[in-house]
Design brief:
The protein is mostly helical. Helix content is about 75%, strand content about 0%.
Length: about 500
């Protein structure tokens, strides 16, 4: 073994505390997950479908972690990236195999999701600090409109005498009043883009890990507290009947189902995060510390030790994003769904903020805006860094750049400049954050079956027999893959077959 490879080998931790100190890739992925899937898509499902899809939300978080760990196992035992492994799957080839060509189409569409995320960041900053007089006027107008919608929703549900509003409208806005517009959110997006490019170009793994972990953990805790205290308010509490209705495996028809399918593609570990996770495992050092695979018992012991760390990493991150997902879904159903509020367009963030008003009252806006900025920007920051690494690797695999580490690192920095500009442009043209996020989620749902296929290929064709998991794990992996097959198949069916027949 070369001296440089020998020197990079590191024995896995033997104690629980040592294992915890080596966690990190999963927390980075959780930072990317919470801001898009949980804050935006999950609340949208709750607002449009009510409580009936709680079962789908929980399953969407739980089952995909098996595929995530299998992808990580491939990287630890081979030292290779996700795309390299996917390129080994059998089938037609044109420079690369068919699966990578499909991934390329998926990734190009999925990138628009980040346009929605940066748009949400811009909205949060605009609400907190408008930059122009038109921004201030638009803030006041939309605050009045949304407060009135809350009042009307409560009056419809409880009767006008019992209706309460977290914030009474300061003035009556008529339906005929033209809605004032402002470009403040776009200006903020431009400023955030510039700052982000600088941070991404000079950033390192530890910065990204610590930044995303701190932001996401803080707001997740606030959201869970919000849900708990909501139970003390009779008009807003989630009853046992509500919870039970969400566990009856019902599937709503129409728009609610479409949103649910899109959400399933990104809640929990979505298609994008499944692909990106091994890259962060590499950057953390799991594969390097294991060393090149050989027949020695020492290598097998190291690999099993680092696999133990990886499993802890994946399951701990699953607990974080599952807790956040359920909390956001319940808030969306309990508040947005009951009042008829739709978190869309340029008022997505403002509408989402109403989920915190019953508990936090006048302080709700400040608390939510901090949280929204935290998780949305964390998602934007981490996802951009992740996309840059995957795309640079794709350049190597497609033969567009040489395979040196220097060339790879250079292109990571180039993409850290290009992607934020593209995300800004997508928001500038569409100005519909929720729709951009869900579009990326729908493509993610279509990609899931192929990732399930890749996971099975890694397990049965590339897994070292010394590290093969037991039967219980294989059952969990197959359930995970079957769920992904069903989701992707039904997404395609509902979008193509049903719509064609409808026409």
């Amino acid at each position: 073994m070369p001296d440089n490879e020998q020197s990079s080998i590191k024995e896995p931790p033997k104690t629980f505390g040592g294992v915890l100190r080596q966690l990190g890739p999963g927390l980075i992925i959780a930072g990317a997950i919470v801001g898009s899937g949980e804050l935006v898509a999950t609340t949208a499902v709750g607002a449009e479908a009510g409580f009936v899809l709680l079962w789908l939300i929980i399953i969407g978080c739980l089952i995909k972690v098996f595929v995530q760990i299998e992808f990580g196992r491939y990287t630890i035992t081979t030292g290779r990236t996700t795309l390299s492994g996917m390129n080994e799957v059998s089938g037609p080839r044109a420079r690369v195999n068919w699966l990578l060509w499909f991934w390329l189409v998926f990734s190009l569409v999925a990138l628009v999701q980040l346009g929605g995320i940066i748009g949400g960041v811009g909205q949060a900053l605009t609400i907190q600090q408008p930059l122009t007089e038109s921004g201030r006027v638009a803030n006041e107008y939309h605050e009045t409109i949304i407060s009135k919608q809350v009042e009307e929703g409560l009056a419809t549900r409880f009767g006008s005498e019992e209706a309460v509003s977290p914030e009474p409208a300061a003035e009556e806005a008529t339906e005929t009043s033209p809605a004032p517009t402002s470009n403040d959110s776009l200006i903020w997006c431009f400023l955030v883009t510039i700052v982000s490019i600088v941070l991404l170009v000079v950033g390192r793994y530890r910065l990204i890990q610590n930044f995303s972990t701190a932001l996401v953990a803080t707001f997740t805790l606030v959201t869970i507290i919000n849900v708990v205290y909501l139970q003390s308010l009779p008009e807003w509490r989630v009853t046992w009947a509500d919870f039970a209705s969400g566990m009856t495996f019902q599937i709503p028809e129409g728009k609610g189902l479409t949103v649910a399918l899109a959400a399933f593609g990104i809640i929990g570990v979505g298609a994008t995060e499944l692909i990106q996770y091994p890259y962060w495992c590499q950057e953390k050092g799991y594969a390097k510390w294991t060393g090149p695979r050989d027949d020695s018992p020492e290598w097998a012991a190291r690999a099993e030790g680092w696999m133990k760390v990886l499993r802890w990493d994946a399951w701990c991150s699953m607990i974080v994003y599952t807790s956040a997902t359920i909390a956001f879904y319940l808030l969306g159903a309990a508040i947005l769904g009951r009042t008829g509020l739709d978190p869309s367009g340029d008022q997505m963030v403002r509408t989402l903020g109403e989920m915190y008003a019953p508990v936090f009252g006048s302080a709700a806006q400040a608390i939510f805006l901090f949280g929204a900025f935290a998780v949305l920007y964390s998602t934007y920051f981490v996802a951009t860094a992740s996309h840059a690494r995957v795309s640079a690797d794709a350049m190597r695999i497609f033969g567009l750049i040489n395979g040196s580490e220097e060339s790879y690192r250079r292109w990571v920095k180039i993409f850290c400049i290009i992607f934020p500009i593209l995300f800004l442009a997508s928001y500038a043209f569409f100005r519909a954050p929720k729709q951009l996020v869900l579009a990326g989620g729908f493509m993610g749902a279509l990609m899931l079956p192929f990732l399930g296929l890749a996971a099975l290929f890694f397990r049965y064709k590339r897994c070292d027999s010394r590290l093969a998991p037991g039967r219980a794990w294989d059952i969990g992996l197959w359930i995970s893959c079957i769920g992904m097959f069903i989701t992707g198949g039904y997404a395609l069916y509902s979008k193509v077959v049903l719509e064609l027949f409808a026409k």
